[in-house]
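Review form for a predicted model. The reviewer records the input and the model, then writes brief findings.
Reviewer: anonymous (R2)
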Amino acid sequence: MTKQPLPQPNDLAVGDVVLTRELAFSRDTLVRYAGASGDFNPIHYRDDVAQSVGLPGVLAHGMLTMGAAIGPVVEWLGDAGWVSDYRVRFTRPVPVDAEAGAQLSLSAAVGAIDAEAGTARIDLTVVFDGQTVLGRAQAQVSFTR
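Model under review:
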């Protein structure tokens, strides 16, 4: 795979969709994330516990969803070092069915450009089951280090 050159602010326009991606979570994904993060809250792996606290079933970790969303942006940039800030608001949970898993759609678009500063804001939209699950998901990209 040939490394893409880093996009530059002059190559971008507000509203440009820079990538779309489908993300898939399975129960295995949740187990692996729990092991990596140390977050073993049973709402992430036991339906009975999740339902006992009023949830529809096992939910994906919020930070897993957040991390999965920024991954394709980093891939597009070619290096995580170009992301100078990343923030989201968790707006809806992502239930992960035992058999079907959960399918999320990601879209990343240019929300703002500051050519003088060499930065751009990339707005991420993450949708599950027709509803946005991350609000104000924004990555600040600096094209100079």
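Findings: The CA atoms of residues 28 and 101 lie 9 Å apart.
Further findings: The two ends are 25 Å apart (CA to CA).
Recommendation: see findings above.
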